[in-house]
Write a structure and sequence with these properties.
The structure holds 2 protein chains of 2 kinds. Chain A is about 40% helix and about 5% strand. By secondary structure, chain A is mostly helical. In chain A, a hairpin with a 4-residue loop joins strand 1 and strand 2 (about 75). In chain A, helix 2 (about 30-45) runs antiparallel to helix 3 (about 50-60) and helix 22 crosses helix 23. By secondary structure, chain B is mostly helical. Chain B has helices spanning about 1-15, 20-30, 35-45, 60, 65, 70-90, 100-105, 110-140, 150-170, 175-190, 190-200, 205-215, 225-255, 310-335, 360-370, 370-395, 405-435, 435-440, 445-450, 455-475, 475-500; strands at about 55, 310. The longest helix of chain B is centred in the middle third of the chain and has 30 residues, at about 225-255. Chain B contains 21 helices and 2 strands. Classes of the chains: A mainly alpha, B mainly alpha. At the A-B interface, helix 1 of A face helix 7 and helix 14 of B.
């Protein structure tokens, strides 16, 4: 009769609490994995052929399963749902009851490797969404690796020779593409490579947060990022200058290899790097590694819209005719300041002297025997002012008003500035066959030798001009 | 011989049968709970109940007077303690294991996720309800007439609640924790702004000292976690319990909760309690009631307010029990459906953008974005001192126990509420659109920004407005109402802006969906 309000409140609260407590308890004793294990047990019973197997199936206990691998500091509860991975009777079952494919577990026992050492994902989680961690809001840095990229994990312990022999073709082909598409022209790996792009050491273990996922169409995972980025770099990172012309399949292979560039190593006892490969030191291989990304075949110059400049043809006979190996080596070693051409010396992009020599030799392999007609610059008294006037009329269109380069190369860079005046004069006179640079001497526009000497002297002053 | 054995067995069996009554009787120290005397004895004789009077004022039991805010805060603390003890069984306060152990709690400990959620939401719920409780105490003038110091104790409890919550926020060692720690450490180190200007940092680096005390180094790391853990599970809770004891004891000594000077039971009270049948008493209102008052027969009545009290057992006890279950049910259901956040493992190389403190500090972080020292140290200290001084600066004894004092109080509160919203939103809109001194004068000395920034201007405005109200109404109580109303509005608006409207680089965004996606 009295105190109705508080008694009612007490009653309603208590009933609500009891109801929700029961609901919570029900949820708690029926987690996702239990459902899978119950199904598995049923399947096991059904598939069991003989009595011994039936007994085994009957004895199967439904409980959280965990593989704790102390040496790898991993606790993998994947097997709470993927409960049949080691059961041969589950060869034809569906996921997650299915047996692990191939004989991988025979050589990589679960008790020693667990699951996430190869497959990534969140081993400690006990539900699918968080364990696979494909969604951004699962807050796990390493989502499960799609099977098409899974060979990236093999490379953690195995060398590429072994991988090639045993059919890990995807990661092997990815590596081949990586070395032959000139990726190292812009990216450093192990201290050697260009500096235009990011160093790629350890990129395979970089957390998801490192990758801008804004424009990713598929799952917001590292592997999807790499693939989409390979197919169209600027669609993913608008300000990127990366060149990539590869097809869908190649993008998959390359992504697999990139994921294999991990920063953390497996413990020594897990690794099986049997033979250290001797790297291919031929000029051709080195050219493909470091140069081909920009210079392509090296036979033709072309205007690159991303770099907004002409990439010169470095193997064209006209150049080789006038530039000796020492000059070429200087360009390769010092790079061309003010352009994308990297300095490749040991202290910069990290190539050895020997490697640079090999590259120069490769570039110059088709040098014509004939020397260019000499040009005795010293003979003329050059008029810088006149040279400037001529430069503005004849050269500025391609090389820019101040020689900063656009269609033509940047003339302010130190290699040009320190080049032998005769070399420059010969270039102006004869032009560069196979490039947009025409001959300006007597065979072409008809500049007199005096005028060429004037221009060369003016070009030599360009480095002092401010942009 | 056999006869005496028989008697002994009989006695034994008799005692065994009567064990329910005798045990209850010994527990309650009373045979039955039928008489007023025995009902009062239950309250007086029980260790846990005796902090409350044998009789309770009717006003106390009206739900619309207190809304049970203080009680709910206390219960939330209990839940946080109990769930916290359970979490401690599994949690490991080391850099290597902290994050994994929290993952294990959510994934494999039976009910672990729920327990963690209850701990989290009970703790954060304390902040909300302690603030509500403070507002109730303020608006009913319950900080007056002998209760001044208890108001100060309450402020200390409020601060402890904030620090306890913050220290717990750091324990999972995830990205949220790490970057909240970085922010906290930067604020702790911000007095360097002042010592730099004074040129005394190299002699007395107070900011650096504070920062190192908190982090145990210069960056959050191995040394940080154990000390934060110690503070969270030992030091702070013990201090909090001590202050809680003082807080309750003083309420009891001050005669229970406040009530209006003029009070009469209303018919509506029948809903909440059993109205007293007995009239008369011998004690004044500001004293508590002992057993003597309940003696049968006529006693001199010195204060008629005794008529307005009812027996605590069962009236108060049932009410408290009802609120307990309500609070429990609320926290439980909330925790079932809303998970406590747990982000990626802490990574010093990946700054969260925006790196935000927990929501209850985001109002301060908004102020910190103008000036770290002012927003993080000076202004909150000023606000706390200001709050603590309210009972000493407003000593008008009238209207205790009445919400908003009177009609004028209501209108002052409403005016202050509207003025505060308009002025603060206007100020923030200005800052968002036009920037502040640094935007206009890039070379301006830092000291100018420390002194003149939106935070200091706002605090100045609030103080000026309160003085204006005091002058206009000739009442310090009205000034206090204006000040406190504006404090609450500032807390809510700044917290909202910091939580919902600030995105990467602390830029303004109308909603999170407009953030540049990462």
């Amino acid at each position: 009769m009295h105190r109705r309000f508080y008694l009612k409140l007490l009653l309603v609260s208590s009933i609500a609490l009891l109801a929700f407590a029961l609901l919570a308890a029900y949820k708690e004793i029926n987690p996702e994995w239990k459902h899978y294990q119950n199904n598995y047990k049923e399947l096991f019973m059904k598939n069991a052929k003989d009595e011994a197997m039936k007994e085994k199936a009957k004895a199967f206990k439904v409980e959280v399963q965990q593989l704790y691998i102390e040496k790898l500091n991993r606790a993998d509860r994947c097997v709470s749902c993927h409960i049949g991975v080691e059961n041969p009777m589950m060869a034809k079952a569906e996921a997650p009851y299915k047996k692990h494919s191939g004989d991988y577990l025979g050589k990589h026992p679960l008790s020693r490797f667990g699951c996430t050492a190869c497959h990534q994902g969140q081993g400690r989680a006990t539900n699918k969404e968080e364990a696979h961690a494909l969604e951004h809001d699962t807050h796990w840095e390493y989502p499960i690796v799609p099977l098409k990229h899974i060979q990236s994990s093999c490379a953690q312990c195995h060398d590429y020779a072994m991988l090639e022999k045993n059919g890990a073709d995807k990661v092997v082909r990815g590596r081949k593409l990586f070395l032959e598409k000139g990726c190292l022209g812009c990216h450093k790996v192990d201290g050697a490579g260009g500096i235009l792009g990011k160093a790629l050491d350890g990129i395979g273990t970089q957390p998801r947060a490192y990758f801008p996922m804004r424009y990713i169409q598929g799952e917001r995972t590292q592997s999807a990022w790499h693939k989409e980025h390979f197919l169209d770099p600027r669609a993913i990172v608008p300000e990127s200058e990366m060149k990539a012309s590869i097809n869908d399949e190649e993008a998959d292979f390359l992504a697999t290899y990139i994921l294999a560039l991990k920063s953390t190593e497996m413990p020594r006892e897990y690794r099986r790097i049997r033979q250290t490969e001797t790297p291919d030191m031929s000029g051709e291989a080195l050219y493909k590694k470091y140069c081909i990304g920009c210079h392509t075949t090296g036979r033709e110059s072309y205007f690159d819209e991303i770099f907004n400049r002409t990439i010169p043809s470095i193997m064209n006979p006209a150049l080789l005719k006038s530039a000796d190996n020492q000059y070429l080596k200087k360009i390769v070693s010092e790079g061309r300041e003010g352009t994308q051409m990297t300095s490749w010396k040991p202290t910069a992009a990290g190539l050895t002297e020997q490697e640079i020599d090999m590259i120069v030799e490769y570039i110059s392999k088709d040098r014509p025997a004939a020397k260019p007609e000499p040009f005795d610059v010293a003979k003329f008294r050059a008029d810088v002012k006149r040279g400037g006037e001529l430069f503005n009329i004849r050269c500025a269109l391609c090389h820019g008003k101040k020689g900063e380069g656009e269609l033509g190369i940047n003339l302010k860079n130190p290699v040009v500035q320190s080049a032998d005046p005769e070399f420059l004069a010969v270039t102006v006179r004869d032009g560069r066959a196979g490039t947009p640079m025409p001959p300006f001497g007597k065979d072409g526009v008809g500049l007199k030798e005096q005028e060429i000497a004037d221009i060369v002297s003016y070009v030599k002053t360009l480095s002092q001009k401010k942009l | 011989m056999s006869e005496s054995t028989q008697t002994g067995i009989n006695k034994f069996v008799g005692n065994l049968i009567g064990i329910k009554d005798s045990f209850l009787g010994s527990f309650l120290r009373s045979r039955s709970l039928l008489s007023d005397r025995s009902k009062a004895a239950v309250m007086v004789n029980n260790f846990f109940l005796h902090v409350q009077g044998a009789k309770t004022h009717i006003n106390t039991l009206r739900p619309t007077y207190t809304f049970g805010m203080g009680l709910i805060s206390l219960y939330l603390f209990f839940f946080a303690v109990i769930s916290g003890v359970l979490l401690m069984i599994y949690y490991s306060p080391s850099l290597e294991n902290a994050y994994d152990s929290v993952k294990d709690i959510t994934n494999v400990v039976f009910g672990g996720n729920l327990i963690r959620n209850i701990h989290k939401w009970a703790g954060e719920g304390m902040i909300v309800f302690v603030m509500f409780h403070m507002a109730r105490v303020f608006f009913t003038s319950s900080y007056k007439k002998g209760r001044e110091f208890n108001w100060v104790v309450g402020i200390v409890l409020l601060v402890l609640t904030f620090i306890l919550n913050f220290s717990g926020y750091l324990l999972p060692w995830d990205q949220l924790a790490y970057w909240a720690m970085v922010i906290g450490a930067n604020i702790a180190g911000s007095p360097a702004e002042i010592t730099d200007i004074l040129g005394i940092t190299k002699y007395f680096d107070f900011g650096g000292l504070q920062k190192e005390l908190f982090l145990g180094g210069t960056v959050p790391g191995k040394a940080t976690l154990p000390r934060v853990h110690f503070f969270h599970v030992m030091f702070l809770p013990i201090i909090l319990v001590i202050f809680l004891g003082v807080h309750f004891w003083r309420v009891r000594k001050d005669g229970g909760l406040t009530k209006p000077d003029e009070f009469g039971p209303a018919p509506v009270d029948e809903k909440f309690l059993a109205l007293p049948e007995k009239k008369g008493g011998i004690f004044p209102t500001n004293k508590t009631y002992g057993l003597m008052e309940l003696a049968h027969g006529k006693t001199p009545a010195v204060d008629k307010d005794i008529e307005n009290t009812v027996l605590s057992w069962p009236n108060l006890v049932w009410a408290e029990f009802a609120v307990l279950m309500l609070t429990f049910a609320g926290v439980f259901v909330y925790s079932m459906y809303i998970n406590a956040p747990l982000k990626e493992l802490a990574n010093p190389l990946i700054p969260e953008n925006p790196a935000k403190a927990p929501w209850y500090f985001l109002g301060l972080q908004e102020l910190v974005s103008y000036s770290a020292f002012m927003g993080g140290i000076a202004l909150p200290t000023l606000a706390l001192i200001g709050l603590g001084l309210i009972p000493y600066l407003d000593r008008e004894p009238q209207h205790v126990g009445l919400w908003f004092s009177n009609k004028q109080g209501k209108s002052v509160a409403l005016q202050s509420f509207i003025v505060a919203i308009a002025a603060l939103v206007g100020l923030l809109a200005f800052v968002v659109n036009f920037g502040w001194l640094r935007t206009w004068f890039t070379d301006i000395p830092q000291v100018a920004i420390i002194l003149v920034n939106p935070g200091t201007l706002w605090v100045g405005f609030v103080m000026a407005w309160s003085l204006f109200i005091i002058k206009k109404t000739d009442s310090t109580r009205m000034g206090a109402i204006a000040l406190f109303t504006m404090f609450l509005v500032s807390f809510v608006i700044l917290t909202y802006v910091g939580t919902e409207l600030r995105g990467p680089n602390w830029d303004f965004y109308w909603s999170k969906s407009q953030w540049p996606v990462h």
